[in-house]
Amino acid sequence: AEDAPERAPPRRARMRPVETGATVLLLGYVVAMTVAAGPLMHYADATAAQLARPGDYVQQLRATSPVLRQP
User: Fold this and answer.
1) Per the domain annotation, does 27 fall within a domain?
2) Band of the pLDDT at 2, cuts 50, 70, 90?
3) Under a CB-based contact definition with an 8 Å cutoff, are residues 50 and 56 in contact?
4) 33 touches 40 (CB < 8 A)
5) Which of 2, 20, 35, 44 gives a 20 to 30 Å CA spacing to 64?
6) Residue 24 lies in a domain
7) In whole angstroms, how large is the CA radius of gyration of the chain?
8) How many domains in the chain?
9) Are 57 and 50 a contacting pair, CB within 8 Å?
10) Residue 3, domain member (yes or no)
């Protein structure tokens, strides 16, 4: 056991600036979504309501006349 070479203490891994920036950005998004939870929920509810009624979308498409491009 005394013949075994000594191991160097493990080095701490350093975070690169890009990793730190990405982490801070994601934390900022979490805070922003918490502060603006009401408007985000209204938007999500409206989106879900539209997705639940695909007939409205199809009706709007049928009412729109196509536009032809000149080559």
Assistant:
1) yes
2) low
3) yes
4) yes
5) 44
6) yes
7) 28
8) 1
9) yes
10) no
Q: What is the pLDDT of residues 26-50, one digit of tens each?
A: 999 999 999 999 999 999 999 999 9
Tokens of 69: 């491009």
Confidence (pTM):
0.52
Look-up of token digits 């000594």: 6
User: Within its chain, how far is the Cα of 47 from the centroid?
Assistant: 17
HSE-up (13 A, CA, CB side) for residue 35: 6
Flag whether 58 is in a domain: yes
* pLDDT tens for each residue of 45-64: 999 999 999 999 899 999 99
The DSSP letter of residue 71 is: -
**Dist CA 49 CA 67 (whole Å):** 29
Domain that includes residue 35, residue range: 17-62
* DSSP symbols for 17-49: HHHHHHHHHHHHHHHHHHHTHHHHHHHHHHHHH
